[in-house]
Structures are given as structure tokens and as C-alpha cells.
Amino acid sequence: MAVYTDITDDELAEFLARYDIGQVLSFKGIAEGVENSNFLLHTDAGFFILTLYEKRVREGDLPFFLGLMEHLADHGINCPQPVKSRDGQALGRLAGRPAAVVTFLDGMWPRRPEVRHCAALGEALARMHVAGAEFHMTRENALSVAGWTPLFRAAEMRADEVLPGLPVAIAEELSHLERHWPTDLPQGVIHADLFPDNVFFLGDKLSGLIDFYFACNDALVYDLAICLNAWCFEIDASFNITKGMALISAYHRTRALSPAEIAALPTLARGAALRFLLTRLVDWLNVPEGAMVKPKDPIEYVKKLRFHQKVASAREYGLLA
Amino acid sequence: MAVYTDITDDELAEFLARYDIGQVLSFKGIAEGVENSNFLLHTDAGFFILTLYEKRVREGDLPFFLGLMEHLADHGINCPQPVKSRDGQALGRLAGRPAAVVTFLDGMWPRRPEVRHCAALGEALARMHVAGAEFHMTRENALSVAGWTPLFRAAEMRADEVLPGLPVAIAEELSHLERHWPTDLPQGVIHADLFPDNVFFLGDKLSGLIDFYFACNDALVYDLAICLNAWCFEIDASFNITKGMALISAYHRTRALSPAEIAALPTLARGAALRFLLTRLVDWLNVPEGAMVKPKDPIEYVKKLRFHQKVASAREYGLLA
């Protein structure tokens, strides 16, 4: 769930007085997302999402995130659009926190992604990468290879509680990836967290992408590697090559992958698996007393990592050479 | 927060196929309410609330609750209206639970109720009581005086942990109320849980009442006693007589209180305070491991009860005799 901060009606009215979106008609906390507090806002002007940025989001990054959403929306990508206040600001303050209003996006995220969803995702991801090319701001990926060692150090002492032998397995993988991580691939703005709950569909049609709060500059194909992890495994951690094929080929049709990108895919997929393994591991070992968010299971990503470690080429993900 | 059950898109589509409300456009869990799982549902036909009834609600009571909402809406009370399926049913099943779709009600609940809110509440409560007079179904109040002893037994052994001396204080109050509880007051359908988060306002205007899942048949003025507890105390547990006056006089103008009802008010207010003290106490002492709902503080109602114990007549609540 995701309402960490309660807002009084007076605070809300004062905040919204800065916007041209009419009177508040309704205001409800939404039980989705884990990083921020999200509210569904109904006003005379329609439905919006009001987000309060909680402490896990760095305030200095917000202009990048909001600017990116605006840029992508201007370039034909269906995503929440920041609504500006009368004085042209996308970012305000509410209840002592940075806050923004964005447009409400219809659609449902697929609880059980199927092959057709993976195909639609591949096309949308490639279109997003192309649309992001001219975005003028940059943000480093704090959760790329250089950020993994600090995460590992935070979890190392207790990782054995989750799975015996896990600390050694992670240390070896880290060492491997640090030596083999590709650095010369085409760069651009990536979403970096495009899990099924961030992709909306109306029927079979992809209707929009949300939650750009991990977006950053990195190798574009790393985003595809994240999606392979997030969309193409079954509940039992088996890889579904038909989904992989649908995802990769739809991406490739819209933005052609270079031979170097294709060659790097297994390494990037290992890195993506390790990245989510590490953040889940840290969250798992640090659940605060009385937590309202149940952490996600890190073991899922141990299994995915093991799969990628055996992959020799992108063919095994379904790429038709 | 209140999403205890996740629903797949396929389950939802199958459920909604029974209704004439078009295709699903969006579906989000709402972080409000504590008894059931609530979702905001957007379809071609508009916005709705989809509720999944969790185990604390008795399935046999649902026809009463849904029937009451329909009856009240038909009699001019603004409240969520059950939407019937094509075969005329207000109650269906989804994800293994009883489920209903109701209309979406605009409005915001007052985070800090003021005198004007109390006045609007008094009128709405009286109108609801009048409108409920012809409702043909009945439901006993399981949380009236006969239900308090079992609640107390469930908490007695550990009530000292919350406040030293609390078990004795509750036992004495229970004994007093069992001897003095009035039984000959005008009866009818009461809401029984009309706290600020169940009353919506648009600006200063009361726009609707929600959450009828404690509604039952009881002394009408007991509902007023509950509202005195829920609306007319300040954060520091001091009673605000201006709010009490606004609430009672607005009620009285719409539905005249009898001398017997007025005389019973202090006893009923004590009973209402004890009822919420007991349910909060039980919840407080039984927070499950990893609970997603933070229990409400029982001490607030200890303080309110102490206030009512000193009240000699309804004048002290602001009634202008």
C-alpha cells in the first residue's frame, strides 16, 4: 500500500489553489506503489493522481522525473503528464513534502502477463527509448554496477538467513559482472523499473507507462534486460522463451538492436537480476516493526540469476538471429 | 489501508460481464476503510466502488446493508447505491468473496471537523433516521450492551497493559450500564459508525454518508450519542460544547427528540464510548504479526468515557432545553 502521509482538507485546498483544475470533489489514498504516497484526486476538471514524494526519493531528482514525463508525453508516449500550477511549476510542496499532480491514466496492469502483453511491451519500450533521445536532462543510474557493492555490504552479514551460501554466490557474481560489464553500448534514458504493475493495458492494447521514479541514463538495452527478468519468467521461475521472443522481436522491429547490444544481453540480464536481488534482499532484511508494506521475495531473483548464468547467447532468450 | 485481496484482470472481467456497466478502464485499490477491500473502478459507464467483503463481515448481513443503501438512496439520502447485475442481484462473488459494486460518491471527509460540519451532520443523521423508518428488513445491534461483556472478556486479562486499572474501570462501567440501559426509546435503523471518515462534504455542504456495514436496529438517539463521541471532542479529549450544540440542535430541528430520549443521552453517550473503547481495546491487543492496519488508540475512548461519567444532563452536551 502507499499512503504514508495524511493530508488535511485545508492543506489540500491551499495546495490546489495554486492550480487551474477547479474545486476538489474527491480525494482518496491509493493502495499501489511502495515508494511514495499516491492519491486519486477528482476535481471539476477531471481525475488526477496527486503524489507526495516520501524520503526514498531524492528531491533533487524530481525535476528530472517530471521533466521526462512531460517530454515523453510531448513525444507521443502515453504516460502521466505533470499538471503545472498557474505559475508554471510542476513541483510543489504539500504536508511538508515535495508533491506533484499528474494526469490520470486509464488502464489496468496485467496480473498474469501473457505473450501478447510482452509483445506490446517490447514495442512500447523501444518507442520510449526513441522518444527519450532528445531529452536534455540526465540522471546517473545509482543502481547500476557501481551501486551494487554498497547494497551487498548492507546485506552481506545476514544474507545467509535468506539462503545459505547466498553471500558467496553474490560476491562471485559481483566480481564477474564488474569484470565483464559492457560500457560502450548505445546510451539513453531508460525506465529502469518497467515491471508489469507499471504498464497499463486496455484489453490487449498497451495504454500507458507509469512510475518513472527510477528513470536514468544507461545502456538502452539494459532496460530490455530488466523487462526479460520482470515479464518472461513463470511463477515457478522457469523462463518462457515464447515471451522472450515476443518481447525482443517487438523491440527490435521498432528500434534495431546492434550486434554489440545483442551480444551483451546475457550479461545485462545477469546484472538486472542481481540488481533486483540486492534491493529486495536489503528490504527483506530491514522490514521495520509494524511495516505496512510486505517486502518482495529476494529468492525469486536468485533463481532468475541462476538461469541467466547458464545462458550463452541471446538466442536462448528467443532472439531470432 | 484496505486491500486484503488481490484480483486478477481475468477474474474482474468475468465478474463485471454480469453487469451493464461497460468495459473496465481502470481499477485501483483504495487505502481507506479497515473491514473490507475497496477498489475504485472506472468503466465506460463512469466511476464505481467495488467492495470485497472480508471475513469480519457476516455474509448473511449483506442483503440488509445493501438493501438499506438502496432504500435510503430511494428516499433522498445521498449514499452509495448498489449497482445490480443484469439478473437483478446486488451481491455477487469475486475472488472467493462476496462482492458488490456501488456508485462512486464525490466528497471529502473532514480531517478536522468544525462546528459547521457538526450542524450538517445533525441534520443528515435525523434525515437518515426518518428515511429509514419504512425499511422492511431488520438487523440486531451485535455491539450493544449485551455484546460488550464478551468483548470485555476477550480483553480483560491484558487490559492492564494498556492502562493500569482499566479492567476494573470497565467492569464497573459495564455493571452500571447493564442496570441503567434504556430499553423503551424510539427504535429504527441506525448507522452506528458515523465517524468523520464516513461523512463526505463538498465545501461546507454535506454530500453523502458512506459505510453502512455496522447499520442495525436500535434506539435512534443512540446514533446521536455515537456522533457526540466521534465528532464533538477535541484532540486533547476535551468536549467542545459548541459542536455538541450544533449537532444536537440540527438533529432536533429535523427529528424532534422526545423527553425520554433527551434524558437518556448521557447514559447512551457512556455506552457509545464504552463500545468503541472495547472494540479498540480488543483490536489493540490482537494486532497480528505483520499487520497492515494500525489499530486505533483505545485510550481516547477511556478519556471520553470519563467525561460522560460526570455528565448529569443533556444540557452539558449543548442541548438548549
Question: Can you describe what's shown?
Answer:
The structure is a homodimer of 321-residue chains. With 321 residues, chain A is α+β, with helices and mostly antiparallel strands. Chain A has two domains: 9-103, Phosphorylase Kinase, domain 1; 115-317, Aminoglycoside 3'-phosphotransferase, Chain: A, domain 2 (Alpha-Beta Complex), CATH 3.90.1200.10. Helices cover 41% and strands 15% of the residues of chain A. Chain A contains ten helices and ten strands. In chain A, strand 8 and strand 9 form a beta hairpin. In chain A, helix 6 (166-180) runs antiparallel to helix 9. The longest helix of chain A has 27 residues, at 259-285. The radius of gyration of chain A is 20 Å and the shape is globular. Chain A binds chain B through residues 1-3, 6-10, 12, 23-32, 40, 42, 47, 104-108, 110-112, 200, 202-203, 290-292, 294, and chain B through 1-3, 6-10, 12, 23-32, 40, 42, 47, 104-108, 110-112, 200, 202-203, 290-292, 294.
